[in-house]
Amino acid sequence: MAETIREELAPDQHLSTEDLIKALRRRGIIDDVMKELNFVTDSVEQELSASPKQSVGFDKQSTLKKTNIDPTRRYLYLQVLGGKAFLEHLQEPEPLPGQVCSTFTLCLHYRNQRFRSKPVPCACEPDFHDGFLLEVHRENLGDGTRMADSTTMLSISDPIHMVLIKTDVFGETALVASYFLEWRSVLGSENGVASLTVELMGVGTESKVSVGILNIKFEMYPPLNQTLSQEVVNTQLALERQKTAEKERLFLVYAKQWWREYLQIRPSHNSRLVKIFAQDENGINRPVCSYVRPLRAGRLLDTPRQAARFVNVLGYERAPVIGGGGKQEQWCTLLAFLCRNKGDCEDHANLLCSLLLGYGLEAFVCVGTKAKGVPHAWVMTCGTDGTITFWESLTGHRYIHKPATPDEPPLTEQPKPLHPYRTVGCVFNHQMFLGNCQPSDAVETCIFDLNDESKWKPMSEEAIKSVCAPGATTSLPPFPPLCASTVDASVTSNEIEMQLRLLVSEHRKDLGLTTVWEDQLSYLLSPALASYEFERTTSVSAGNEEFQDAIRRAVPDGHTFKGFPIHFVYRNAQRAFATCLRSPFCEEIICCRGDQVRLAVRVRVFTYPESACAVWIMFACKYRSVL
After folding, report:
1. Where are the domains of the chain?
2. Per the confidence metrics, is the pTM higher than 0.90?
3. pLDDT tens across 357-380, in order?
């Protein structure tokens, strides 16, 4: 623009701000910009924090525009007004401006709505100041336009699930607390406003230890015409707790009876991995069937195989344990697993099974062991033609199960199992639980005919439904929906690529080598990375011929080309580079010496829901071969 205006001016005339403004006005650019600008007043912020006694301006068009409030619906405005007594961070120094520090993030889920607070620096009194507008809607048809009254809302037993995540300076996440907030006390409070302090307890082995306190304020919008008496609210909550406790007691009695019968079939069943209950992150024992539920991914995932790839790129981490000894068991609620973006093999298997059920497949979680007797969980689907497919949720691999037949003559060649699984104790989904009662629990000889009660002992589906069906008990955590990725794939790919170029140049400089990058060669590596990801998702290889042809054309006669692809599920360039250098093939490329050495690096980030990423990196070099 400036160059165009200079051409219009006299050669010796200096270009001033005024000349620029005139030129912009002449071209109509300023008018266009002024039309685009929208000045929105911050009236909403003041109104939402004001006491509901004052009239709230829901009729104002600007308010509706800015907060997307439907005046015919009932909302709950939840404010988090700071935290205190996070004693683990008592000695934490005040972060300097611009300094990277550990942060706390609060994630919320309520009736299919997900929220995330702004990250705040970890401190003894973290500075949480966030407001979340939750819609207290009814699912029943016909109730959509009628605003929910106090009595109707009292029957909505879904809690607000809050998960506190800590992110360290390297971007590693840890689960700090998981809390179910009962919000209905606001229905019996004066003016529909309630303030309370919430004590967050730790997770896993520390579930009895307090990690800190949050100050929370609730307000109903629009304000309630009539509030209920606190006594009515308390009676309803007590009644729900009583019903839930009774259902859980009856299920426990049934489960004990089922287990006695299972042991009577064969005393050796005692050593099989038949898992009826599992502890969640808060140390609460829950039936395993309650960890699985058909889950639809909306438009975020298109195929069951893509769902398997998504689950596989979520990080794997065993539950932390203090001291040596056995593995700490901790099956996470889905929200805690998704917010942390990593979990144990059971968390992965439960999520994959839920997604496959959502796609209309008959899917089960299998609990058993893999090599060396290590306990493990994976997913199995049963085809309508009887085909049994195992899905390994940590790698995304699929295996067709062909059972060996021990009764065949010894000369008959038995199929060699390709899968890593040794034994299977039980299989379950949201409606069924079956204990393996075949003479051997070895996977290779197992017959997965789940309708044959001489091979699989079923639990009563009615009993499972009484404690695991959605809404059956108030202690069941509701399943959250998946969230779209907030990561911009091309921007992130560029950033990591630039950082890797810098790291390679520095590394070669330390070795006394110069670095010449060839952009065209880097660009030619893109199809290979796309084809690797496609193959991981679909198990079909495609597009490799074009890549090889392009490389042959780009590398002149007498030159040698070397390439090294590698895959990560995190976005930390330094960590990735350190891992790459540990590979002798990659180190050979990065530290390449010779005549006319040209280096190339290409990064391609593939984004999945929940901001999970598959990061493919390819280092390459070409040089003249000198014999």
Report:
1. 1-35, 75-228, 243-320+328-406+415-468, 489-624
2. no
3. 999 999 999 999 998 889 999 999
